[in-house]
Write a structure and sequence with these properties.
The chain has 115 residues and is an alpha+beta fold. The protein contains six helices and four strands. Helix content is 50%, strand content 20%.
Amino acid sequence: MRSSKSKMDHIIAFSELGDYINLPVRTYSAGMISRLFFSVSTAFEPDILLLDEGIIAGDQAFNEKASRYLVQYTSKARIVMLASHSKELMHMFCNKGIRLNKGVVEAKGEIEELF
């Protein structure tokens, strides 16, 4: 488990916010907020990580960086729960899923069977 300083270092480095990290969050762009949120979420190395597909969105370079991190993260037998409309994201990060239709479970099982 990381120390508080180590977590802060991870957040600053991973988010690539540099000196902007000291500005009020209300001044951040949507992309900066997304970077910060993802970096904070992963700094604590939770056993279960809950994500919405929007958090992985953003500029291409950060999207690729976040995707590489999630691949590494899931390879450590950790659990990622991803809410997504993207079949590509689901295939990339999930092996099981639940498909909802208007809030009702329509199907559940292996990702390959669902999509």
